[in-house]
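Run log // design_07
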């Protein structure tokens, strides 16, 4: 009991020091507590963005696959934000560990006076041996191929991007997961799955079967590759269909430290790909019937190192849907330099374009300067 009290006091002191001065480092504790080896670490980064958007698509802090405002809006807007900044903590005791991470994109506040914001939960999961359970990146998402960008997440419109509660099992190169089912576009209330006191009226009456994901990872001297598939039962709004999508992704080392990254998603990924671009279930304008939407999305990125610390990435991501005929893309080029240990500064220029059926093609250019201190 005395050992546990000392341990608790030490953790509290370290945590307080971290709050007062985040530059103290990562490791808070690494040692024995009773018969167990305990490790506590913290991390994250502070990121400041200054972003100017000019064109026919309304300003956003970062581009995804949506249509801001739903119509062309003549825009010339400069925004300042620190929303991408984040904090995380990991705790391991013996063979069991947990990880929690939050960022500052939780909404709330205003720019008139306080510029306050709420925290947003990103990750909170438990790992034990080959098992992982909790909120994490979807197993369908190939993290290693996301381009290095200043725009938060790069070309979301061409990527698989999803984070949700899941149970995952890893065996060698194989990963298998059941993940939280959620269907959008059917007209049912999009109520949170974890709402306290959620009633049967408010809760979605369907979504009884978890999404199933299988993925194979291949690491070799020729690069890192991933082959994934998601299978879902869409049982919503009168539609009952088993849908599937595949993702192929790779990161290929080139000369020196340069690399080429790519991913391709095809099938019926729905909400998993081209974030915000399409619902899972849409109304076919030709027949006025509800159908599951098909999407083709892809991203290509090349990163070049000019010096040991100075590098540039050029990327292009795009997606199109079958039934609604949505076509959207995002390209950019940047230059980023590590000017001090853990401190990156950079400048990025690019554009987001919408060329959906039945509307005139529109786009907005953006230029963004960022500074990021990782700890």
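design_07 sequence
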């Amino acid at each position: 009991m005395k050992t546990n009290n000392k341990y608790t006091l030490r953790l509290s002191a370290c945590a307080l020091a971290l709050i007062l001065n985040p530059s103290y480092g990562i490791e808070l504790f690494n040692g024995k507590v009773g018969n167990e080896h305990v490790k506590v670490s913290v991390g994250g980064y502070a990121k400041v963005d200054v972003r100017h958007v000019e064109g026919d698509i309304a300003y956003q802090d970062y581009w995804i696959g949506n249509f801001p405002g739903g119509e062309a809006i003549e825009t010339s807007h400069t925004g300042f934000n620190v929303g991408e900044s984040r904090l995380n903590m990991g705790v391991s005791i013996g063979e069991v560990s947990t990880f929690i991470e939050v960022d500052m994109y939780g909404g709330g506040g205003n720019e008139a006076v306080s510029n306050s914001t709420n925290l947003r939960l990103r990750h909170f999961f438990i790992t034990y041996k080959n098992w992982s359970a909790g909120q994490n990146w979807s197993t369908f998402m190939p993290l290693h191929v996301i381009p290095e960008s200043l725009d938060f997440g790069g070309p979301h419109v061409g990527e698989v991007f999803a984070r949700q509660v899941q149970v995952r099992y890893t065996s060698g190169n194989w990963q298998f997961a059941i993940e939280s089912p959620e269907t959008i576009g059917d007209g049912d209330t999009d109520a949170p799955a974890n709402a306290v006191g959620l009633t049967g009226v408010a809760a979605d009456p369907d979504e009884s079967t978890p999404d199933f994901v299988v993925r194979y990872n291949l690491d070799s001297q020729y690069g890192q590759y991933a082959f994934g598939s998601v299978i879902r039962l869409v049982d919503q709004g009168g539609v009952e269909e088993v849908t599937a999508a595949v993702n192929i992704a790779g990161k290929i080392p080139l000369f020196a430290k340069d690399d080429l990254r790519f991913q391709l998603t095809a099938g019926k990924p729905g909400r998993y790909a081209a974030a915000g671009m399409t619902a899972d279930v849409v109304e076919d304008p030709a027949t006025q019937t509800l159908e599951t939407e098909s999407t083709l999305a892809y991203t290509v990125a090349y990163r070049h190192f000019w010096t040991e610390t100075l590098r540039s990435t050029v990327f292009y991501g795009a997606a199109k849907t079958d039934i609604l005929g949505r076509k959207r893309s995002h390209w950019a080029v940047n230059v980023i330099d590590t000017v001090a240990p853990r401190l990156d500064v950079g400048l990025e220029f690019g554009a987001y374009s919408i060329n959906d059926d039945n509307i005139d093609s529109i786009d907005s250019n953006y230029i963004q300067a960022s500074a990021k201190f990782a700890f």
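The chain has one domain: 42-85+137-374.
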